Amino acid sequence: MGASMRLIAMLAVLLAPTASLASWVKRVVGCLMMVLTLYNSAEAWTVYGDGRQSCASWTKAQEHRPHVEADGTFRVKLSDWELMTQTSWVDGFISAFNYYVRQSGDVATGIDTNGIFARIDTYCASHPLDSIAVATFALIEELKQRH
Question: What pTM was computed for the model?
Fold first, then answer.
């Protein structure tokens, strides 16, 4: 289920009529806060390149991804171009986050490239309709909580 469908399902449950007007008003205010938070999150920015591809396409392209060496390299066949462009997009997005937002250090300190891709694999397996960008943003949000 995509993020939009999850939001609609949550709103339907939260906005169901109750016996207490005060309880219902609290839930409406909570829903508005949630919508504003989601609006300002991963889906509110413009994405270029392979980040627009679905998690389902990530999962398919990454099936035969080789182990990434310590220097960040790995060998692939020319036919694996989608694997290369997707992983490069994720690496580039995290690098840009480090440069423009963190301005020093690495949000992924202590996790190698294999670990980053494994986390994207896990997210995408659970959210095949989300984009690679949303998966990467979710990973960054998770990693920020560690610091």
Answer: 0.68
Q: What is the pLDDT of residues 115-144, one digit of tens each?
A: 999 999 999 999 999 999 999 999 999 998
Question: Which residues are CB-contacts of 57 (< 8 A; sequence separation ≥ 6)?
Answer: 82, 86, 132
Cα–Cα dist 115/4, whole Å: 28
Residue 134 and residue 147: Cα distance in Å, rounded? 21
Comparing CA positions, the residue from 56, 116, 60, 113 lying closest to residue 83 is 60
